[in-house]
Amino acid sequence: MTAQPVQRCENSREVIERVLAGLRRSVCLDSVDLDSFYDHLEAVLGQDAAPAMDELEELTQRLRGALMQLAAIVLEQSHDQPGAEASRTITRARALRVEEPPGDFLPARGHLRRLALVTQDLLELLVED
Predict the structure, then answer these.
(1) How far is 56 from 111, CA to CA, in rounded Å?
(2) What is the pLDDT of residues 8-66, one digit of tens each?
(3) For labeling, which of 34, 75, 84, 89 is most exposed (least CB within 10 Å)?
(4) Is 114 helix (H, G, I), strand (E, B) or coil?
(5) Alpha carbon 22 to chain centroid distance?
């Protein structure tokens, strides 16, 4: 049996930072239940989505919680210096999170859809990295 030559890896600061960022993202994403986020999005944005009035409040609260978890992960991944697109998305998420949902059904449903869309945008930012 002959010894296999050892492959040398590039040991630059850029490569090390990229590997560490990937590990951090993995650990952060392991701490959240992504499947439940996608289930919430499907309940709001799916082809057959038609949440009833009594479901709107619960879904709104769940998406509000998801928004802040995902925004925190995006910020952590960028070392609190997100790019322009991430900054705009986080600003939208924060504004929607504090906005009180309307009391009427159709406006409340529209608000919920906006929450779902910005949640989806935050998830996409994490997947892009």
Answers:
(1) 10
(2) 555 666 766 665 555 555 555 555 677 888 888 999 999 999 899 889 999 999 999 88
(3) 84
(4) helix
(5) 16
